[in-house]
UniProtKB/TrEMBL annotation:
<feature type="domain" description="STAS">
    <location>
        <begin position="14"/>
        <end position="113"/>
    </location>
</feature>
<dbReference type="InterPro" id="IPR036513">
    <property type="entry name" value="STAS_dom_sf"/>
</dbReference>
<dbReference type="Pfam" id="PF01740">
    <property type="entry name" value="STAS"/>
</dbReference>
<dbReference type="InterPro" id="IPR002645">
    <property type="entry name" value="STAS_dom"/>
</dbReference>
<protein>
    <submittedName>
        <fullName>Anti-anti-sigma factor</fullName>
    </submittedName>
</protein>
């Protein structure tokens, strides 16, 4: 008799990208960010000058993920949307919450990025 059972849960990290007015690119991530999946986060954050990293559906954020966010923050205008306690705790424990523009929810993160007027339009 087997007294242990294995719970099969999907693992990994996926992302989708949406363009918003003002040149804002919203990257919505779903899953866990750890050493095995951080390359997906790096890929998601690789392009764009004005990014929102929507982490509201991320259930775990490792130090590798925090490092990826900090590196992206040095090369782009980045706003981070959080929703869950686990992600917020990782950012606070590492001090990254003081270096990143962290917002409660995606709407707040998008609003925080100042819109850039489109060519040919007056602000």
């Amino acid at each position: 008799m087997n007294c242990f059972r294995t719970i099969e849960e999907p693992s990994g990290l996926t992302f989708t990208t949406t363009q918003r007015p003002g040149g804002i690119r919203v990257i919505t991530l779903v899953g866990d960010v750890d050493a095995a999946t951080v390359h997906t986060l790096d890929e998601a954050l690789a392009a764009g000058e004005r990014l929102v990293a929507d982490l509201t559906r991320v259930s775990f954020l490792s130090c590798a993920g925090v490092r990826s966010l900090l590196e992206a923050n040095t090369r782009t205008e980045l706003a981070v949307a959080v929703g869950g306690h686990a992600v917020t705790r990782s950012l606070e424990a590492t001090g990254a919450d003081r270096l990143l523009a962290v917002h409660r929810g995606t709407g707040a993160a998008v609003a925080a990025l100042t819109p850039v007027p489109e060519p040919g339009r007056e602000a």
